[in-house]
Amino acid sequence: MTKKLIVDHVHIEPMEIQETGEYNLEGLFIRLAYAIDSIGATRVVLDTMQTLLGRLSNPAIIRAELKRLFIWLKQKGVTSIITAETGKDSITRSGIEEYVTDCVLILDHRIVDQLSTRRIRIAKYRGSSHATNEYPFLINVDGIISVLPLSSLSLDHIAYEERIPSGIDELDEMLGGAGYYRGSSILISGTAGCGKSSIAAHFVDATCRRGEKCLVFLFEESPSQVLRNMRSIGLDLEQWVSNGNLKLLANRPTRYGLEKHLVQTIHEIEEHHPDVVVFDPISSFWRDDQSLEIEAMLARIVDYLKTKGITAMLLNLNSEGEYMEHTNSNVSSVIDTWLLLRNIEQNGQKNRNLYIVKSRGMSHSNKVREFKITNDGIQLSDVERV
Predict the structure, then answer these.
(1) 14-147 and 163-382, same CATH topology
(2) Of 87, 121, 167, 280, which cross-links 134 as Cys (Cβ 3.0–4.6 Å)?
(3) For residue 46, what are the contacts with CB-CB under 8 A and spacing of at least 6?
């Protein structure tokens, strides 16, 4: 087998170094030349230059030798990566490497509210029009690095004409008689106990009955609990789990940082290849001190699903007494269809109502419909006038 990698450990003991007179890196050049030529290397990594230069005090010589090193590496025709430790008042501790290199990447590791996040920024890249923002990145168990731009994707996704049923005939009638657009984003919001998860479960069941795949992200209930609860309204979702059409994934929002949730979501979507994705509920992520980050994450997810032609359903819990046509995450602006559910006290009882706030690209009902959750599922009816 042809050798493709050489790992050479250069032992340097700081206590053994004594600076005297002139010095250079000629010995390092000889050692590198042997390693490069022995396998025909095209990539070289020096980790870290700080170990080599940390005990030397003459910046003029250090700068001259580093510049000579980089010129020598270019003459050898290799692409080089050199790591360095962050300095107090400069990008690197010696404050020299960033000036003589072509590209500088700054890595940072922060802990906010006991959750750690790695971030990356391109400080410079000669000859290139590069992004200048700071981006979160993750390293998974397979060593794959995922960089997560906070800006949304370009708005060039396909708008599908195909319609897919909601799983509730009366709701399909309200949606122009044919249901949701494929590849659209759907928001179901309302207060606790108004039936958001039940409406989503009907959509999941209808998706699986068509032989399509559905992926559900749960943030407040376990998969077992959801399957049990849906059986009480006549929906056997367990059969779809068994045949592989439905996958339920449960995680507390506080288990990971937002960036890792985003990476895990994309990873599961690319592995499962679903036609429909449900998030129940997105309001579990909400925190006042992370409002912008949460909005960016949700917008990123919605954009990503649209580019894949995947229909997305997001559930949001509204607080009692707040303005109903509002979501904490402000995700409603990127949503195509918005269903609002609410509980209304009337004639000594609490009734559930539903209406469509908006549904882009279709003629939809403006009626408020009453609905009941029965042993045979959800039933919609006209509101009785008193």
Answers:
(1) yes
(2) 121
(3) 80, 81, 82, 83
Residue 71 Cα distances to 29, 66, 103, 147, 235, angstroms: 11, 9, 14, 30, 69
| Cα pseudo-dihedral 254, 260, 264, 266, rounded to 10 | 130
Long-range CB contacts (within 8 A, 24+) of 102-106: 102/126, 102/127, 103/128
**pLDDT tens sequence across 339-378:** 999 888 777 788 899 999 999 999 999 999 998 999 999 9
* DSSP character string of 79-139: EEEE--PPPSSSSSSSS-HHHHSSEEEEEEEEEETTEEEEEEEEEEETT-----SEEEEEE
Cβ atoms within 10 Å, residue 255 = 11
- Class of the domain covering 163-382: alpha beta
Crossing angle (nearest 10°) for helices 196-209 and 223-231: 90
pLDDT digit string (tens) for 56-111?
Answer: 667 777 777 778 888 888 889 999 998 888 877 777 766 667 777 889 998 888 77
Cα-Cα end-to-end distance for the chain: 85
Output 14 or 375, whichever has higher pLDDT. 375
**pLDDT tier, 166 (very low <50, low <70, confident <90, very high otherwise):** very high
User: What is the spatial distance between Cα 144 and Cα 270, in angstroms, rounded to a whole number?
Assistant: 15
Domain spans in the chain, listed from the N-terminal domain onward: 14-147, 163-382
| 50 vs 209, residue with greater confidence | 209
